[in-house]
Amino acid sequence: MTDYSEQQLNELEALESIYPDSFTVLSENPPSFTITVTSEAGENDETVQTTLKFTYSEKYPDEAPLYELFSQENLEDNDAIDIFKLLALQAEENLGVVMIFTLVTAVQEKVNEIVDQIKTRREEKKKLKEKEAEEAEKQLFHGTPVTIENFLCWKAKFDAELLEIKKKRIKEEEQAGKNKLSGKQLFETNHNLDTSDIQFLEEAGNNVEVDESLFQELDDLELEVVEDGPDYNPVGPGSDSED
Questions:
Q1: CA 45, CA 163: separation in Å to the nearest integer?
Q2: Which of 105, 107, 109, 101 is nearest to 13 (CA)?
Q3: What is the pTM of this model?
């Protein structure tokens, strides 16, 4: 009869010795622990890191352990999915023997690959953004090619908008005409208008000033008498001067 507990205990001791700085026991029953895996430094000293959590099943190693990504850093979703697939494959291939070291080693190699891919991914994203910007600029300058169909569609829309503007203007002019009052209506609606001139004169009183220099005595004016003809009579018919 296989002593699973002894195999599990022996592996735990070995793992604690191999990973002294990244191995942490979470519980003893069932045995559960974490191991932090950090990639080698990539460009700009960037690293990829994930903490794997393992829990022994009752019949481990004849059964695969339970595993999950306890935490992660600089890992994209696709990378996390790839790590899960890798763990499943390695666990299936190593059933019957203690396998945690093998699983962690596989993940270590994977995160090293991922950190090397970071530079490539960034360059690809940069090129994609530049391409999208170029396409947007071309679209801005070239616009949409004019065809008979889209021209007729645009013209129908333009004519409809123009008709609405004309209707609105006519309506506003008609409304303005209705609201405009005649002179009679103004006096009927505002009774102050018929007394405004009289009120002005009353308020002025004796303060009205007249410039006397504008007037001259009649004797100072030189009037020229024009005779129209031999029959011209300055007095006129029926005058008392005729005897």
A1: 67
A2: 101
A3: 0.51
